[in-house]
């Protein structure tokens, strides 16, 4: 008997309120990711049906890709998983990362220049 190790559930609640099991998840060799399949994988990980590592290995996903799906569902619901939304999200994320650091060599702007 294993002590201190939790058992995985046999099923979890899917993105549309239905119970999903490992057998209901997308097949391992997925080539076309539609919203429903992405949402099912995220629900499986969130519910403990699959670990994050298992999901990434099983579906050949990068950690960044899976986490972006998870974040988009949290922020925008299932419509956030549309390919066009993913592209927008990636562009927004890159733009934030490329913004110059405000603590650089320039002194901070005085927010109240007329009060001196």
Describe, in plain words, how this protein is organized in 3D:
- This protein has 116 residues and is mainly alpha-helical.
- Helices cover 44% and strands 3% of the residues.
- The protein is built from four helices and two strands.
- The protein has helices at 35-47, 52-59, 63-76, 83-98, and strands at residues 12-13, 19-20.
- The protein has a two-stranded antiparallel sheet with strand order 1-2.
- The N and C termini lie far apart (74 Å).
- The mean pLDDT is 80.
Topology record:
Blueprint: E1 12-13, E2 19-20, H1 35-47, H2 52-59, H3 63-76, H4 83-98
Antiparallel strand pairs: 1-2
Oligomeric state of the chains in view: single chain
Q: Name the beta content range.
A: under 5%
State the helical fraction. 40-55%
Within the largest sheet, what's the order of strands? Answer: 1-2
Short description:
This protein has helices at residues 35-47, 52-59, 63-76, 83-98, and strands at 12-13, 19-20. The chain is mainly α.
Features:
two-stranded antiparallel sheet, globular, 4 helices, 116 residues, mainly alpha
